[in-house]
Amino acid sequence: MLTRFALLATTALLAGGAAAQPPALTPFDAEGTPPAPWRIAVSPKIAAHTQFSVARLDGVPALRVQTERSYANLLHPLAVDLAPRPLLRWRWRVERSDHRGDLRRKDGDDVPLQLCVLFEVPAERLTLGVQLKLRLGRALFDPALPAASICYVWDSAPGGLPAGRWLPNSHTDRVQMLVLQSGASGAPLGRWTDEARDLAADFARAFPAEAAGGWLPRLVGVAIAGHGDNSGASATAYVAQLRLEDR
Questions:
Q1: Which of 16, 21, 114, 223 has the largest count of CB atoms under 10 Å?
Q2: How far apart are CA 242 and CA 91, in angstroms?
Q3: Residue 202 DSSP SS3
Q4: Phi first, then psi: what are they for 19, rounded to 5°?
């Protein structure tokens, strides 16, 4: 049930324990391997791994995400309070994709590109049922499993969900997904698209019970992924100029 969610928070994300967490996102500014503290997390149950590298595209350094019937996440730890209501900005594009899955189904929840934000929520703000689910997930998969995540999705399937659609991850409602670009809505291939998200507002929309009274969590990580293992899909996509900014 929690397999995909667990891999968003593998120990690769928070390895080092007491080491200080970076205050901001490390940019993709040099070609080659993504710079530390970006780290790749894979599933031991999936042999084919999505490939991540930094290349120049239209003169801009960008993370290249190559999916070939594969699965992996590129993770960056953070320790950022949302109280100042920061904006997360980035540019992304899907160069090619043959994805035809369905985000609502466990056997078809593949995407050419998604960007997820991971939040820390104290136990006292969670219901007993959620606490029990998290306790189980942390025991089975990872003690660092975050309590809440939002994934911004590029759904390139021709009959995919429309842009603006919120939905829970097919494995757990502790991951809420927002379709930002959609093949059903005519999202263009091979063209940069700019995004800006108010993380505090999105957290309140995705997890209203936890956000009651205007409470805001801490952002503890960002994950970038391309998935094609369920449906046998392949894609090439890019992310550039990913950054946190004050409103």
A1: 114
A2: 7
A3: helix
A4: -60, 145
Q: Among the listed ranges 44-48, 128-132, 192-196, 226-230, which one has the minimum average pLDDT value?
A: 128-132
Residue 129 reports pLDDT greater than 80: no
The burial class, CB within 10 Å (0-12 / 13-18 / 19+), for 57 is middle
Calpha distance 150→115 (Å, rounded): 8
Segment (H or E) for 237:
strand 234-245
- What does DSSP say about strands 218-225 and 73-81: parallel, antiparallel, or unpaired? antiparallel
How many percent of the chain have pLDDT more than 70? Answer: 86
Share of the chain residues as helix, strand and coil, in percent rounded to the nearest 5: 15, 40, 50
Residue 129 parent element (H or E) = helix 128-140
Residue holding tokens 């829970």? 168
